[in-house]
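Section 4.2 – Deliverable D4.2 (structural model, holo form)

The reporting period included a commitment to supply a predicted holo structure for the target in complex with ribulose-5-phosphate. Inputs used:
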Amino acid sequence: MAPLLAPSLLAADFGNLQFETERLAASAADWLHFDVMDGRFVPNISFGIPVLQAVHRHAKQPIDVHLMIEEPQHYLSAFRDAGAANITVHYEACPHLHRVVQQIRQLGCRAGVALNPHTPVSVLEDIAPDLDLVLIMSVNPGFGGQAFIPNTLRKVAALKELLVDCGSEALIEIDGGVTLDNAQALVDAGADALVAGSFVFSSPDPVATLAQMRQQLTASAEQQDFR
Ligand SMILES: O=C(CO)[C@H](O)[C@H](O)COP(=O)(O)O
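Output (structure tokens):
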């Protein structure tokens, strides 16, 4: 199966978000990835609820909200009301993770949990069947444009095994440093969704770059189905 593609608006032109959202509407993007940073959980501040509302007005794809914030439980319904389809919180930010995941699902959103690079996938053993999404950070969260951490490939394979073993249908999403150089290896390891920020938006034509990702990853999936 070819993976879902989720361009990260963190790398888009913030002065022109209507244009960026509208051009992605006619692209190969499956989701729009929306990174929220609070300057506390991560050492950076990005954007929040009013910006999500504005993006949602022009978006055609579901919006995949990644909350890199402390105490996310206080903001879940506000993000849902602003247009979030998926809400992912960090394992490291939630002492009562099971309750937060239940709250996200009760709001009618897909519930995701993100893991920082140092957090082993084994921490999800008891909650995996309750998740719709696991987001593996393949860079340290807080900034776009960082280099992919190679150990992510081993981690994705371990997560895939854990999900299969416990009968979880959660999707595996990878976030950080994703390019066409590592995308196929990530899919081969078990990734279902790829977030790409700078690779897409630093290219001369982001829509064409997404089309190229879609084309290469689909061709490879078809070859594997044929075998
Ligand atoms: O969550 C993030 C940073 O915390 C970004 O979504 C991620 O880094 C994607 O950007 P890039 O593809 O430029 O690495």
